[in-house]
């Protein structure tokens, strides 16, 4: 999708965005992209919106207004789309843009005492200029809201996050049920949850910043290290946006193989999800069953890619290598093997009375809220939201194969679990439709030694294991990207925890976290 940005001007921005949401039904805020557009335009944001009825997408560009010598501001859209909460805080964290009216303008990934805005073009990254604090991070019970007064001056209003009598429990950053270094500051009243404040960034590696100094082929290695269970999907999005910008026409063989590999990767992801969901609820047998069968999936992928966790298979213009001579036969054997074993996961865990008691009615989130909070993937489809990118914005062969978009109706953790079960069957269906029909042809369309992308801005997204994963590319015609922004699958999921769990019990946090498929390196980047 080549971006043709709408621009409304600072004074009209809030009203025009409200019209897009309320009058034209652009009810899904896909992402907010902060960017330093250069000395002429300065700092600003690009908003990508979708109409969930027609699946039409639009992009809006808004340049930040400079106030005083150092401050930049844009009106917040949090009251229109709730997933803007963490998305705007991310932009503030990396660019220093203050969003007017946002009640919680704290840093999101960086430490609260970090100095500077690391994704600005003038940020000095030399170690001499950036001595990272070595002490414990200071904590505060207060946050800031910024607004412009009648004189146009920036005014700060302090809001209290925690009251004197609030009892706070930290889940993470070292806790098995948070699937990595995710910290959830949980305010409780007895065993009832009052608020959840996600605290992110413990493994933030600055991948988007690193990509700005890399050539396009060099950037590919970073994608596999995000959600390592969706390495194919992440790299697919990055090569997809580059190939679309360059106008590269792929052979049918490449498209067939990519579609099959994506679905094998989805099965890999879902098997580990099912296993860890059971393990989080103390059911070890189901975890061992899933890990047993996941090994067979990885064996089939490894014979072609050479990797198990880090795949390194997709390239700009095709594939790293052709499929192994035994790939077709082994994939068909795998599909035949897996089908009966999926029922086993239900027999030992999914249909257990304890599982139903722990997951049914827990972490409830209705359709409207899922869209408003950007809860994509199986978690959103559990509420009946038809958000599958493979259906709404098909790529490769997804418009040529028959598969069902699995939807729930109970909007709870049990439906999220069952959707993962049923999506394994759908992935097997897709693979079986393609595996005997892979055409002859090139597995790689040769590119120039130095790849340069034409000037422009593009967006490309895929359906990852946990939801929509997208990549924004701003090219200035050079061999390196001017700006790359990745839409992680997990960020909006983590941002919805507070809504899902307010009024629930502490044990329900663990159960809901088990049903939400997030991996922290994808979230933190």
Strand content: 15-25%
CATH H-level superfamily of the largest domain: Cytochrome-c3 Hydrogenase, chain B
User: In angstroms, what is the radius of gyration?
Assistant: 23 Å
- Under CATH at level 1, the class of the largest domain stands as Mainly Alpha
The major sheet is characterized as: 3 strands, antiparallel
Q: Helix count, per DSSP?
A: 17
What are the salient characteristics of this protein?
single chain, 2 domains, 525 residues, 3-stranded mixed β-sheet, 38% helix, alpha+beta
Could you explain how this protein is built, in words?
With 525 residues, the chain is an alpha+beta fold. It folds into two domains: 156 residues, Beta Polymerase, domain 2 (2-Layer Sandwich), CATH 3.30.460.80; 318 residues, Cytochrome-c3 Hydrogenase, chain B. It is built from 17 helices and 16 strands. A three-stranded antiparallel sheet has the order 1-2-3. Helix 5 runs antiparallel to helix 6, helix 6 packs antiparallel against helix 7 and helix 6 packs antiparallel against helix 16.
SSE blueprint and pairings:
Elements: H1 10-22, E1 28-36, E2 43-50, E3 57-63, E4 65-67, E5 71-75, H2 84-95, E6 97-100, E7 142-148, E8 154-160, E9 167-171, E10 183-189, E11 192-199, H3 207-211, H4 216-223, H5 231-246, H6 252-280, H7 284-305, E12 314-315, E13 318-319, H8 327-350, H9 353-359, H10 367-372, H11 377-381, H12 389-392, H13 413-434, E14 456-464, E15 467-475, E16 483-487, H14 490-495, H15 497-501, H16 506-515, H17 520-524
Parallel strand pairs: 5-6
Antiparallel strand pairs: 1-2, 2-3, 4-5, 7-8, 9-10, 10-11, 12-13, 14-15, 15-16
